Amino acid sequence: MKLLSGIAGLTLASVVAIASANSADLYRGQAGGYKDGPIVAPVATWTGFYAGLNVGYGWNDDADADGIIGGGQIGYNWQGAFGTSPLVLGVETDIQGSDIKNDNDDKLNYFGTVRGRLGYALGNSLVYATGGFAYGEFDGADKTSTGYTVGGGVEHKFTPNLSVKAEYLYTDLGDNDSDNADFNTVRVGLNYHFGATGYEPLK
User: Which residue positions does the secretion signal occupy (predicted)?
Assistant: First the structure.
């Protein structure tokens, strides 16, 4: 009986010692444990609704037309749409007030777009191509002109909820008689992403 008690006591002591050693190993820091190991920065997800404002510049070299534009946009992104997490599908609509006009004061009063977006997420940044339907109104026109738009841009999240973007679009509203029917735009914008939350890094 004394022998069995001694063996049991020795076994228990060994288990406690091994458990203590493993616990110390888990918390020994940079030497190989997990307590003070490398901190991984949180990575944004692009999935969700967003809305924002933008301002920019538009021009048509052939018609010697240019001017300031400004407006707003709303859209939705879906990251991992094809089962690969860096790929982002999206849809966006925007409307812009416009001061694009030529020397004859032929002016584009406003225009808007409804576009698809296909992007590739690089952490907190998104590079994308975009294209779709466009519409607008020119001074003196008796109808809304329609056409298409294509372009691309880059967007960066500096907080989980806020992002800035820079974008180029070529737009052709070809079903009208204006010399400004096709034009280029560059713009910068600020978006607010609804429901976005940050991720705490593992410490």
Answer: 1-19
